[in-house]
Here is the input.
Amino acid sequence: MKAMSVQELLAYLDGAVAVSGDSITGVDEMHLPEKMDGLAYTAVFGNPLARDTARWLIWEIGQTVGVYPASIHELYMAVGRGDVPHNFTVPAMNIRAMNYNTSRAVFRAANKHNAGSMLFEIARSEIGYTDQRPAEYTACVLAAAMREGYRGPVFIQGDHFQISAARYGSDPTTEVQAVKDLMAEAVDAGFYNIDIDTSTLVDLSFPTLDEQQKLNYTLCAELTQHARSLEPDGVTISLGGEIGEVGHKNSTVEELDAFMQGYLRELGELSGISKISVQTGTSHGGVVLPDGTLADVKVDFNTLHDLSKTARDSYGLGGAVQHGASTLPADAFGKFPEIGTVEIHLATNFQNMIYDNLPQDVVDAAYDYLREHHKNEWKPGKTEEQVLYSARKRAIGAFKQQWWDLPADGQAKIGQALEDQFAFLFEQLNIYGTREFAQNVVPQVEIHHHRPTEAAEMAAEEDVSDLAD
Here is the structure.
């Protein structure tokens, strides 16, 4: 169901949700889940004012029934203090494709195993090619939670809010402001977790570690200050920093010390980051072989252990964060909680699973689109299999509605495969039973939005093709 007007949307909710002006005055929770499909669809594909009203309704209904965006900051700081054990690793899941259906699978797995310490995220680079601005992303995740009867805090994160080294080199003021503007848009949409990534500006040509990390930690502190200025009352946004760009050389404890000592000097008395991203051998999306399969990747778990321990013991952070982990071998995931990794980022394999379970004619249409519209992806020395694997993420936005409109049995097949994978990861990462931590340690802050009276202006799309996912 897609409402064509606000009046049609409110009529659709009659009997399940009562609305008076700017307020939700009543919710029939028994009939609420069945209304979420239409609400979510309208929140993505509806006419502008009906779309924005659906997003407002999802947010306000969530506030009423106890499904609310939250910051994981207090949980990570509790881990850093030792008040909560560091024997679980929070999965940060980049939901690129079929957000509502995929997020429903996450919440089904979470409900079955009482999991609650998990992050839904999207990177600056992903927003454009997946055609998901922050307000839409939040609406899909919250609606999925309510569709599956989930209750509690929902952690939504801006991943790799990254500075482009090239654009910073030519116009630093404009590039930093672009990240600040995105942070403001994201926080307004309920992204109370943001990974600041200025690691692109680390310069290894300098002779000392402080000089190598200086621009990184200085700008990270500046963006931290900006994030703190955006916080709703009662919310401390969970922020992450990064000391080494993923896919480059492995990080060291000495680099972590250089970054943190400089960062804390720049930051002063403000509350800082709660985690630190490091490089220990992975790459975003994996390394694609000529036949389109992935090369084996090995994580330096000893280095990751030492970095996490230093982050907790010396700086009170939750620990270190591992990026580019979704394409690792299945037997690797259980090692992350064993060594105290606070968070790992998972993206590409969920996308791969969707492609693997789509009807072949739908996949063929996506590949034809890539051949026509993304010819620049075909690089000398690359096989077509390598190119299609690397480029197929760029078809997600163009085919968003077609994939959403798949027959119910096709969506269910994809959803079940994803649910099984999420359940496996949650078990391996030891987050079964962590909803208690999420609900008891993380404060619930009631935040209300004004009902829209006119459609919001859409932010302009930016060229972020040089940024990490």
User: Anything to note?
Assistant: Residues 6-65 form one domain.
